[in-house]
Write a structure and sequence with these properties.
extended; 3-stranded antiparallel beta sheet; 1 helix; mainly beta; about 15% strand; 3 strands
């Protein structure tokens, strides 16, 4: 299995290895340190390859700081 050069979603270089299958050469999970996208090496090329990743879901790393902050989910009310 070859290590990806960049994140498929934001195209930042050198994604990190997040996890490796306990079964040798089965799968590897990668994670982008910039946009936090993660993917497994066994997923289809449109998910794992930057050139094939859908344009509608790409992220420009410069825009990440402008994204809205998600509010926390409140605790359940017990009635």
């Amino acid at each position: 299995m070859s290590t990806p050069d960049c994140c498929p979603r934001c195209r930042s270089l050198d994604p990190d290895v997040l996890s490796v299958s306990p079964v040798a050469n089965c799968w590897i999970v990668y994670k982008c340190g910039v946009c936090h996208y993660s993917w497994r090496s066994t997923e289809p090329a449109q998910v794992t390859t930057a050139a094939m990743y859908p344009e509608a879901f790409r992220i420009n790393p410069r825009d990440i700081s402008d994204f809205a902050v998600m509010p926390p989910i409140p605790d359940l009310r017990l009635s």
